[in-house]
Please model this.
Amino acid sequence: MTTEQTHAQSNAEMRDKLTQQLRDRGLRLTPQREKILEVFFNLPEGDHLSAEELHQRLKSHHLDISLATSYRTLKLLVSVGALRELDFSEDHKHYELSRNPEAPHHHIICSGCGKTEEFESPEVLQLAVNLLREKRYKLTDVQLKLYGLCQDCCDDEPD
Ligand SMILES: [Zn+2]
Ligand SMILES: [Zn+2]
Model:
C-alpha cells in the first residue's frame, strides 16, 4: 500500500472543487449527496465501499437514505469525477474518492480472500497517456487491476 499522498487534495479543497463541479452541471450539493460524500471523506485511505456497504454505514449513522438513492448518488458522483467506480468482482462495484486524478492509483486484488492493495505507477500512467494521445482521446482515468493470491491465502494452500 502506498502512503505517498503529497499531491492529494485535502477534504476542504475537495469539497470546494466538488461543489463547483456539481454547480457547473446545474446540480446542487444536497444534504443527501453531502452525507454520502462525508462517508467517503471519513473512509481510511485505501478503503472502498460498495453501494450496499455505503447504505449500511448510512443506516448505522441513522441516516435515512434508501439503497436506490445511494446507487443513484454514487453514479452521479462518479459522473462528475468525485468518485471512482471500481470493478473488483463480478457481483458488485466498489467506490472511492477520486483524490488524486493526476496520479490515479491501481489495485491488487487477492482472488482468495478479496483483500485489496493500492499502488501507483508512473510507467502505467505514461503508457496510458501515450496510447490515448495516439487515438486522440482525452484521458479521464486509468485503472489497472492485478489479481493474485496474497501471502495468507498462499499459506492456506495445501502443497
Ligand atoms: Zn483504491
Ligand atoms: Zn488472500
